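Today's session is about reading a structure prediction critically. Students often jump straight to the picture, but the first step is always the sequence itself: look for stretches that repeat, for charged clusters, for runs of hydrophobic residues. Only then move on to the predicted structure, which in these notes is written as discrete structure tokens rather than atom positions. Here is the chain we will use throughout the hour.
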Amino acid sequence: MTVRRVIVVGAGVVGLSTAWFLQERGVEVAVLDRTGVAADASWGNAGWLAPALTLPLPEPSVLRYGLRSALTPSSPVYVPPTADLRLLRFLTGFARNCTPGRWRAAMAVFVQANRVALDAYDELIGGGLTEQTRTADPFLAAFASERDRQNLLDEFEQVRAAGGEVDCELLDGDTIRSLEPLLGDTVRAGVRIRGQRFIDPPRFLTALADSVRGRGGEIVEGFGTRAVRSRVGAVEVAAASGETRAADAVVLATGARLGDLAGPFGVRTIVQAGRGYSFSVRPAELPKNPIYFPAQRVACTPLHDRLRIAGMMEFRSPDAPFDPRRVQAIVDATRPLLGGIDWSALKEEWVGSRPCTPDGLPLVGATRSPRVFVAGGHGMWGVALGPLTGRLLAQAMTGTPDPLLRCFDPLR
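Below is the predicted structure for this chain, in token form.
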């Protein structure tokens, strides 16, 4: 099948990256989104391009938290009490993958992806994007105790055992506070991680969308895709309004709502919304680099004129309302660790739905229809792996698939 025109459903980082790399291979693209560019998880995330921390979400430590912790609203991983059978099926599958053996198998896949993920960003920037990635040096992980720090060091050893690379240096409390004065006196230990980067997600996604448009692509906002129909010689995308679009192929990159459209084409893996919350503050002196609090699972990222603070993994419907208690939980966890912040002046309070799979691996590739492809299920790592996903999928749709895509088979 010759692919000359492709519709991409979803204007987040994965969808826009796929459109861009398809354009690189001479394909005409139209991107359709029910809201607009970066309207969901691609907007309010931490923006980290951090291979050292890009790990499978189902991990043994999640099980160590226990059910009681997951049902506590202030827990970093929160599961509201529910009778939702689909969510319960997802959680059962997720728990099955939180074993050391399955984590190691998934980590071996992430090692392959992490080695080339930043190259895909470099290709985007080399192609003329006006927004750059930023080197994170120092990239600091901060802890209230050396005991808390040991958990991250143990994780890094597992990453190295799987073939990954982590370049880091241990810091005492005085040293890490001298590197980042915003850190409070309760921070007693740290780790400096080298080789990481970060972006300002709203700016970067806007620049990526502008590049797709500038290269002849169409981005249609307000197109709520209701159905996808594979026809002889074409595929048709229908909106709730009745409007239809046709092309040679379609890429479904709809984040946490991926299963709604991909299910009829044989994609049976549950894609569950893992909702994250963030907000911004303006400290007296803005850090130049990210700060990570692993014990609290809170990420802090400077975005030019403000500090974004993000956290929480809330397994809930993507359509559930914003819950201010989640933001307060992040504030309560972070307040003792950061000084010089007016916690009563929060801005840009946000919730977005990360698309999570039970095994922690994305769904990228062909479905049962030769004209329908999917790209999603990245969990917390859509920004880190989005451009790589776009490059891999564009290559598969127009040439010879990379062997790595076998690990992301949507029909597994």
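Discussion point for the tutorial: The chain has a mean pLDDT of 95.
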